[in-house]
ABC-2 type transport system ATP-binding protein
Amino acid sequence: MDAVVVEELTKRYGRTAAVDGLSFAVPQGSVCGFLGPNGAGKTTTLRVLFGLTRATSGRAEAAGRVGGVLDRDGFHPARSVWNELSLAAARAGRQDADIDAALAAADLEHAADKLVGQCSHGTRRRLSLAAALIAAPDVLLLDEPASGLDPHALRTLRERLRAHAAAGGTVLLSSHVLEDVAATCDRVVVVNRGRRVAEGELAALLAQRIRLRSPEPEKLLAALDGLDATSDGPGTIIVAGADPDTVGRAVRDSGAVLHEMSTQGALEALYVGLTEASR
């Protein structure tokens, strides 16, 4: 079952189309990355799904209770972190929610009595996610949730999003942090100029697309002759259309020093290739 459905969505501001006939779906129980350059229409699409902006045409719907994080959190600077989270629970009709446990899950117990206006950007982002999750939403819509987070907080974010999906929830997150998307999401939707350029399971999109890093790229390219191998900057090669075993054997036989062989790193090349091709 699809928890998020966007169908022929168009949103115009005057003569400018921020979103132009966009269609995609996100299955229930998945964490879907929503990728695209600035101005691609990601935030506008999320705002339509939230009900904050009316579509010019088409539809964008999320099943069940919807929560999430947009660019502005709306917190009152003179309230404490604890009070803001308590208010979020009350607004969602969850007055019995364990606020202390929610703060601990967000690694915010140390900041419970701190005024929001005195909190760092990263702390406010963690509070935003905690406020969204305490409402027990079926669908989480997140706009750049990793912004301002340190590595520890990023790891916690990934774990919480995967846990939400494993419990039957659904996540649609907009992000520019490609490696984080690769480590968190099982699906991606790539948009550019308000239109979809790719959609599907991340593993399938990255299948047979491998990034190699080596101080001896010429030796690697020679060993990969016959495969679709291209240079992608100093010391970096992208191989498309070959399985990892085939590439691994070629690398081994070449005798070249190898610093990295990954499909996660290929996400950047895939993203750039898709968005540049759609210009």
Summary: The chain is about 35% helix and 30% strand.
